[in-house]
Amino acid sequence: MDGLDAAITILVGAIRAGTPLVFAALGELIAEKSGVLNLGVEGMMLVGAVVGFMVTVTTGSVYIGILAAVAAGMLMSLVFGVLTLSLLTNQVATGLALTIFGVGLSAFLGIKYVGTPINGLKPLDIPVLSDLPVLGPLVFGHDLLIYISFALFAAVAWFLYRSRAGLILRAVGESHDAAHALGYSVIAIRYMAVLFGGACAGLSGAYLSLVYTPQWAENMTAGRGWIALALVVFATWRPGRAMLGAYLFGGITIMGLHVQALGFEVSSHLVATLPYIATIVVLAVISRDATKIRLNAPASLGKPFHPSA
Amino acid sequence: MQLRLEQRQSTSRAMQYATPVIAAGLTMIAGIALFGVLGTDPFLALYTFFIQPLTSLYSIGELLIKATPLLLCALGLSVGFKGNVWNIGAEGQLTMGAIASGGLALAVYAQDGPWLLPLMLLAGALGGMAWAAIPAFLRTRFNANEILVSLMLTYVAVQILGHLVHGPWRSPEGFNFPETRTFGDWGQLPILVEGTRLHAGVFVALLVFLAVWLFLSRSFQGFKVTVAGQAPAAAAYAGFSNKSVVWVSLMISGATAGLAGTVEVMGTIQQLQPVISPGYGFAAIIVAFLGRLHPVGVVLASLLMSLMYLGGESLQMSMNLPLAVTGVFQGLLLFFVLGSDVLVRYRIRLVRTHQTEPA
Amino acid sequence: MTPQLDLREITKRYPGCLANDRVGLTVMPGEIHALLGENGAGKSTLVKIIYGVVKPDAGEIWWNGSQVDIANPNAARALGIGMVFQHFNLFESLTVAENISLGIDPGHDLAKLTNEIGEISERYGLPINPHQHIHTLSVGERQRVEIIRCLVQNPRLLIMDEPTSVLTPQEVEKLFETLRRLASEGCSILYISHKLDEIKALCDTATVLRLGKVTARCSPADETPKSLAEMMIGSALPVTKKSTNRELTEEPLLELRGLDLPAADPLGTHLQNVTLTLNRGEVVGLAGVAGNGQKELLAAINGERLAPDKAMLRLDGRDVGRDGPEERRVQGLAFVPEERLGRGSVPEMSLTANTLLTWHHKGQVKRGFVDLAEVSAQAITIREMFDVRCPGVEAEAKSLSGGNLQKFIVGREILQEPEVLILGYPTWGVDVGAAAAIRQAILNLSATGAGVLIVSEDLDELFEICDRIAVIAEGRLSPARRTGNTSIEELGLWMSGQFEAAEVSDAA
Predict the structure, then answer these.
(1) CB–CB of C491/C465 below 8 Å?
(2) Which of B73, B174, C151, C363 falls between 20 and 30 A from C71, CA-CA?
(3) Secondary structure tally for chain C: helices H, strands E
(4) What is the pLDDT of residue B357?
């Protein structure tokens, strides 16, 4: 029973640690499926995290905080959209700019909030169900946002592969010229996809600062936005695999902590490098299969679109 | 009436020079607005941010000290960006350069001589190159995205540095502070001007500037990098190997970033600490774009960026505003640089329309 | 009778050119109407206006007796206008049915649509499997998808933009049958082409455009190809001069020997056992429908993809299969690639820099540094000798017109005095004058003893300048026939891959 308990603790921990990645990766996946590569996930997450935190402190309501984080993420992605979609800037450079801006802005906004305690979002306590052995903690013991992440996954998967709007989105990402010639509004569709990505990144940031930690610290995302970007590639642009990958990475993060807790003499600094090294290794392994990438990656990913051209 | 972008027949030279100035101007305006919102006197704040750091010999020395690592990193990055090789891990390569050169200085502690100085510079460059070789190898061998790999390695490098200064390399005389010994005399760059901290690292940067300029404007290899960046299919047609362009770009930017870290620890810090760079490697990305990926432009941009770091400090000291203002300005500046770039390739036209656009 | 479509005084101006200048065009119901004109005459702009992709600056569009404003392609489709573009608007990773679904108005059932596709495909002789992914289809099949996409909406007007360049001669015949059948059911057809014999064979009436203006309206049946050409270009078609008494020697310059190369791109073509000999002073043409391995073959000959065995490719007697492009160039190979902008040239670089792109092995680079004066002098020579019209050699490649840029690229390659010159679609999308100049330059080069290999879809062009012609189909190469000993019909059969039984005796 001890082994089982430990396993459940690790699994639940992996889900919790993986949830911000799920949000961010699903949002980026939709943006990329429409053909837009937004490297600003990290920046949007940070701004979402700090805004969510500030609003929670000010209003006393975590829920309003979460909504504010979503709005902040969308606002950030709107900046990105205006630059890349309307002003046709380079998507890679603009995404980097968004991250640099987000790092600076969030540090600036959050300076008075470092160390402020809040009451984060607590796990739902469903009578009876939450107390079930195994299933209780694994299925019924989570906080609201984790259930929202499940629902979001289902919605994204349904949207992409079962709805006409999803078909149009995939078509725009595959060939914006053809979609334009057929009369689809490439720019408007991409704006929506980018905004959705921003909303998800904001939500992801809110999860970190309002649920996972819960507190605000400068640069608290610690590269999770970038890992989410890598996850989209690992997943070869499929939501199911992105979700699994997110939990896997959550698991790796948790493992590091558990290794130390078990009393092994490992430098905490070196343990902290694990998720990054794992990202690099998996990225190399997946990218190796050029055929798979070629057949799954949206063909016009990262390419600017100008209707008259 | 609506605004519409119209493609120019050929890129506008005038706009190529004008856009960085336009971007700097827009950043200034945004700054006024930002300070206004914060309730501080915007003009006093701007004066404190942009002018005050230039009013003493000491602070001009500081300006050059901070511009040095920025310039070094940005010169290397601009080569890669021209070739469409997106090394965004200069911060990590900088850290590795510092670890390599600092490690050398610590290893020969108290037995050094004049030979140590060039050897540390070499070790730093090699350290940066070794760190950049990882994304180069993974990209050319496994097709792994160099953006993500180089960035992930930045986090790894910073953790390794943290591990070293907290553990094996911690100074025995340091009262348990996480820092190494101060390097020996030959492990430090000489001071150039009395009364300032300005050290000989500036010369290293100038030499690298000349080399990169020559490389990009005159060398055939530099031409290959540019072609690969602008038109990959044309590069393949001409037989310019993409793999070699990736390697050359990453080796150059790795070496310059490694040198930046080395110069920083040899000249300014003189030991290893958990944090040796306030994000020079990332700010250098902005510097490279603001300088339009041209070495001369990059020199000017690195001075402006350095001024922004100093301005942030000066605001913090005299007006009690958070240092993070610098980060906000950096981001805004890059947005404006990228956004105004549209003027180079497109003309903005006001068109009368009575119908809606199909797009 | 009310015209189905009536354009009045349509004008459209782009920066630097007047694409349509008060153009009028009338198409009657059930009529097959040709829109004739050479590249750059303004045909594409005009049809994009009809289809709502481009908005005219002035003029009126009348549809079935009432004036309309076609704001976008959806509006055009709602009126009953369908269009098959020259560049297909298909999504490779989606299925046929999904592609068709995307091209019609929402609110239909995909299963029902799939049935409908089956019916139409049978009725009009356009066989297709609705569940297949586009990337598995041949170019001809893709065109069928485009046509069916229009037909499921019961169009009143079908616009076909240069539809035959991607078809074999036999497929062209089938397409014409389909179109005639549609016209007999009352659908108007606007047929855009610059191929005079096709227009004579198919169309009832024709409107001729030149430099954005209507220069003639006629019944093609009453005209000769010569008179149509004069309306189209304002003068007689230029002819190239082939030196008549050339003796072809059997001295191989380029030999492909059983070249076998799996596709690098998963959507590409596998080259299988490709064998071909190109002799001194000879012009060999390679016909075939696009997407049958032309791109892969050109890349393999250029050295962008190395052969598995160095003996599979021989250049002037040396095995070069494992040499890269630069090494092959040093050994006398030159190549005009299939795409001008972005491959044959770097769009945002000057003509000088674009000269250096392939011309750097003859003293232009010294100890790793470029001798800019030397390169610039060469660029000036190319510009003068090949009549490249541009402000100067510092002009960016993208600022040149298609014809001038192509003349520059061809000039750059020919002036390197290659032993072997390879050209991919050298006159595609080029105006008649530039095309004639390019053909003449090719013939002149071959007269000096070089071997020339031309990959092209334009059979007329190949018959005009080649000594021998072979066909590439699905990555395999047919035997090469002397131009006088073959016919369009035979090449057409070969294009669909039916050359297993062909005799090899005629090769060389």
Answers:
(1) no
(2) C151
(3) 16, 23
(4) 40
**C-alpha distances in Å from residue C453, one per residue of A47, C334, C471:** 60, 10, 12
Name the pLDDT band for B40 (thresholds 50, 70, 90). Answer: confident
Q: Which of C88, C92, C266 sits opposite A174 (nearest CB)?
A: C92
Residue C116 CA from chain centroid, whole number: 32
Residues of C in contact with B237 (CB under 8 A): 302, 304, 325, 335, 337, 343-344, 357-358
Q: Which residue has the higher pLDDT, C418 or A128?
A: C418
3-class DSSP assignment, residue C369:
strand
* Domain B2-351 = CATH 1.10.238: no
- Contact between B313 and B63 (Cβ < 8 Å): no
Q: Is residue A28 part of a domain?
A: yes
Query: CA A187 to CA A84: how far, in whole Å?
Result: 10
Nearest to C272 by CA among C497, C34, C52, C88: C497
Is A163 a domain residue? yes
Domain count, chain A: 1
Q: For residue B88, what is the enclosing H or E element? A: none
- Counting residues of chain C whose pLDDT is more than 70, the rounded percentage is 97
Q: Determine the structural domain holding residue A37 and report its residue range.
A: 2-296
Pairing of strands C271-279, C252-261: antiparallel
Report whether C332 contacts C316 (CB < 8 A).
yes
Compute the distance between CA of residue B273 and CA of residue B262 in angstroms, rounded to an integer: 13
Cα separation, B160 vs A273, in Å, equals 8
Q: Which residue has the tokens 């991607």?
A: C166
Q: Give the start-to-end residue ranges of the domains of chain B.
A: 2-351
- The sign of the dihedral angle between the CA atoms of B243, B249, B253, B256 is positive
**How many angstroms separate the CA atoms of C392 and C380, rounded?**
8
pLDDT reading at B355 higher than 60? no
Q: Which chains touch C (3 or more CB pairs under 8 A)?
A: A, B
CB contact under 8 A, A280 and B147: no
Structure tokens at B198: 């300005």
Task: Identify whether A179 is part of a domain.
Answer: yes
Q: What radius of gyration, in Å, describes the C-alpha atoms of chain A?
A: 20
Q: Is C241 exposed, middle or buried (0-12, 13-18, 19+ CB in 10 A)?
A: exposed
- Closest residue in chain A to residue B343, using alpha carbons only: A87
Condensed to tens digits (0 to 9), the pLDDT of residues A194-210 reads: 999 999 999 999 999 99
Domains with residue ranges and CATH for chain C: 5-233 (3.40.50.300), 252-344+418-495 (3.40.50.300)
Chain B / chain C CB contacts < 8 angstroms? 84
User: Could you read off the pLDDT of C123-134 as tens digits, one per residue?
Assistant: 998 999 999 999
* Partner residues linked to C32 by β-bridges: C189
Cβ–Cβ under 8 Å, residues B196 and C307: no
If you average pLDDT over residues B236-240, what whole number do you get?
96
Which CATH number belongs to the domain containing residue A140 in this structure? 1.10.3470
A230 within some domain: yes
* Cα distance between residue B75 and residue B63, in whole Å: 18
pLDDT band (50, 70, 90) for residue C250: confident
Whether residue C92 and residue A299 make contact (CB cut-off 8 A), yes or no, is yes
* pLDDT score at A309: 43
Q: How do beta strands C271-279 and C66-68 pair?
A: unpaired
DSSP one-letter string for chain A? -HHHHHHHHHHHHHHHHHHHHHHHHHHHHHHHHTT---TTHHHHHHHHHHHHHHHHHHHS-HHHHHHHHHHHHHHHHHHHHIIIIIS---HHHHHHHHHHHHHHHHHHHHGGGTT-----PPBP--TTGGGSTTHIIIIIS-BHHHHHHHHHHHHHHHHHHHSHHHHHHHHHHH-HHHHHHTT--HHHHHHHHHHHHHHHHHHHHHIIIIIIS-S--TTTTTTHHHHHHHHHHHTTT-HHHHHHHHHHHHHHHHHHHHHHHTT----HHHHHTHHHHHHHHHHHHHHT-HHHHHHHS-TTTT----TT-
